[in-house]
Amino acid sequence: KGVDKWLTRPHVGPLIGFFLDWLKDADSVSKEECEAAIDRAADALSLEKRAHAIHPTRVALTGRTSGPGLFELMALLGPERMRKRLERAKRFVKPAAAAETQGD
Question: How far apart are CA 100 and CA 97, in angstroms?
């Protein structure tokens, strides 16, 4: 359900691209850095609400719509695991949204 609800939205391809770019050279990330990245992603993609970045990111990283705090979860997973999970989540992104990330 979470995949259908959140990963098929048009902004999710660019959102995943944003996070993959952010994590490209990172060795570690803090909870605070993760929260700031969510805020930057929401601003960069002109999302109406921060939640439109939070929910798809949670689903992409965990496959679930609820769980522990996202920022703590992101810091715990670390950049390498997040990169792998985000790459895997691209399979579920709606084709129009996936096409938007091909240049990233």
Answer: 5
* Cα–Cα distance measured from residue 60 to residue 64, given in angstroms and rounded to the nearest whole number: 8
Q: Is 49 left (phi over 0), alpha (psi -120 to 50) or beta?
A: beta
Residue where the block lists tokens 């944003």: 18
Give the dihedral sign, CA 30/35/39/45.
positive
The string of pLDDT tens digits covering residues 39-71 is: 999 999 999 999 999 999 999 999 999 989 999
What distance in Å separates the CA atoms of residue 4 and residue 16, rounded to the nearest whole number? 16
Helix axes 31-44, 51-62, angle to 10 degrees: 120
Distance CA 99, CA 71 (A): 28
